[in-house]
Design a protein that fits this description.
Layout: E1 4-11, H1 15-27, H2 29-33, E2 41-47, E3 56-67, H3 70-79, H4 81-89, E4 92-105, E5 124-132, H5 137-153, E6 159-164, E7 170-177, H6 180-187, H7 190-202, E8 205-220, H8 229-233
Antiparallel strand pairs: 1-3, 1-4, 2-3, 2-6, 4-8, 5-7, 5-8, 6-7
Helix pairs in contact: 3-4, 5-7
Length: 234
């Protein structure tokens, strides 16, 4: 069996729904741990603006999880109790299924994703997770919104968001691209390339993980459509 990773995004409208979602960052943990078949998982908040800023977006939350196979991933993210509760209160939700193709680094002291032989000529996803050293927070947040803005203006990106477990200190960037060429083109130029050089030169992170995925399928909508629709039309 090949591991499948899911990212489920939920948008909440209104004070009561948003307050519930915020509380679930802590209260949902016991139920998540009991979900049959789940492996590594994380509950995340999100950034506002173009998706990755130091200002939290209290209306959008994400659940990342690993599963032993695609069938289990699809079924449990739709029917397991914690996911059903999120779905019932959310104004909109979208889940994407991913197959890890490249993994380097650690997340909470673990290597959560297992590389598979999956290869795709279609959409690819990139995930970066880092624990930021408190001493460089100001420098980090000076650079990162610029990178996020460039991603948002890139006509090739199918989806992008910034999420994290703890605001400011634990950060995850997630983006989906139509193919490897456009993903690599962004990574090697402009603000992103400058930031990567600074990461190495100034030792920004105490822990970091970089992963690439083949996009397998999705369910639901985001902003009224599937973010993969543009890929399907090309």
């Amino acid at each position: 069996m090949n591991q499948v990773v899911t990212l489920s995004f939920y948008r909440f409208d209104g004070f009561r729904a948003r307050a519930w979602a915020f509380a679930m960052m802590g209260l949902a943990r016991p139920a998540m741990a009991r979900v049959k078949g789940i492996g590594f998982w994380k509950l995340c908040g999100s950034g506002s603006g173009v998706g990755f800023t130091p200002i939290p977006n209290l209306g959008v939350y994400a659940v990342l999880a690993t599963w032993p196979d695609a069938e289990t991933a699809s079924r449990q993210t739709e029917t397991a109790a914690p996911f059903r509760r999120y779905q019932a209160r959310a104004a909109e939700s979208w889940t994407v299924l991913l197959s890890p193709t490249s993994v380097k680094g650690a997340w909470s002291g673990k290597t959560p994703f297992k590389e598979t032989a999956t290869r795709s000529n279609g959409a690819l996803a990139a995930l970066t997770r880092a624990t930021i050293r408190p001493s460089i927070l100001a420098r980090f947040w000076k650079r990162v919104p610029n990178i996020s803005g460039v991603i948002g203006r890139d006509e090739n990106v199918l989806f992008k968001i910034g999420v994290g477990e703890i605001p400011w200190l634990h950060q995850v960037t997630f983006s989906i691209w139509p193919d490897a060429q456009t993903m690599a083109g962004f990574a090697r130029t402009g603000h992103h390339a400058e930031a990567i050089r600074a990461v190495r030169a100034e030792n920004w992170f105490s822990e970091e993980l970089y992963a690439r995925f083949a996009v397998l399928s999705d369910r639901g909508t985001w902003n009224g459509v599937s973010p993969l629709t543009r890929q399907e039309l090309t």
